Amino acid sequence: MTDFTHINEEGRARMVDISDKQETARSAIARTSVIVNEAIYHGIQQNDMKKGDVLSVAQVAGIMAAKNTSTIIPMCHPLSLTGVDLSFSWEAMEEDAYRLHITSEVKTKGSTGVEMEALTSASAAALTVYDMCKAVDKGITIGETYLEKKTGGKSGDYYRTLQGEE
């Protein structure tokens, strides 16, 4: 059986050998958020930002990031993804603040999971929102990024439970 570690026999870094792992359907959902002011919220909603359609560009950025995760994250396996989907929803907060929720779902049929692809995708989408809106306000906040769910693979399914939830 293969030892799934990034350390080789000489104590140096290596990419884990997954050649003995069974190919299965795998998916992962990651979430993050971006907090913006009222001017940015209305600019995005009305598609009136100087750099263009913020959410469409963020969606493409998230998809491209998922597809290129192995070039960004050391020792992450290059994967053939079967699907990448990002969704966006808004939440009004205190006066003059709005939270954009970003959800990335990534799927594959392979020998290793897509958690890193989902997390990278959500992060890149959030950074793209920041980049496209920073001329209006550099005080934009990117929130907590986390894995919400993963399915498939030898380690089984994972569902994030927040404190206070059952």
TrEMBL record:
SUPFAM superfamilies: Molybdenum cofactor biosynthesis protein C, MoaC. GO terms for biological process: Mo-molybdopterin cofactor biosynthetic process. The keyword Magnesium does not apply. Residues 15-153 form the Molybdopterin cofactor biosynthesis C (MoaC) domain. The keyword Lyase applies. It comes from the Bacteria. It is an enzyme of class 4 (lyase). Pfam families: MoaC. Substrate binds at M75, C76, H77, M116, E117. CDD domains: MoaC_PE. Its EC number is 4.6.1.17. InterPro entries: MoaC (IPR023045), MoaC_bact/euk (IPR047594), MoaC_sf (IPR036522), MoCo_biosynth_MoaA/MoaC (IPR050105), Mopterin_CF_biosynth-C_dom (IPR002820). It catalyses: (8S)-3',8-cyclo-7,8-dihydroguanosine 5'-triphosphate = cyclic pyranopterin phosphate + diphosphate. One of its GO terms (molecular function) is cyclic pyranopterin monophosphate synthase activity. Keywords: Lyase, Molybdenum cofactor biosynthesis. The active site is at D131. Pathway: Cofactor biosynthesis; molybdopterin biosynthesis. Homohexamer; trimer of dimers. Catalyzes the conversion of (8S)-3',8-cyclo-7,8-dihydroguanosine 5'-triphosphate to cyclic pyranopterin monophosphate (cPMP). This is Cyclic pyranopterin monophosphate synthase. It comes from Pontibacillus halophilus JSM 076056 = DSM 19796. The lineage of its organism: Bacteria, Bacillati, Bacillota, Bacilli, Bacillales.
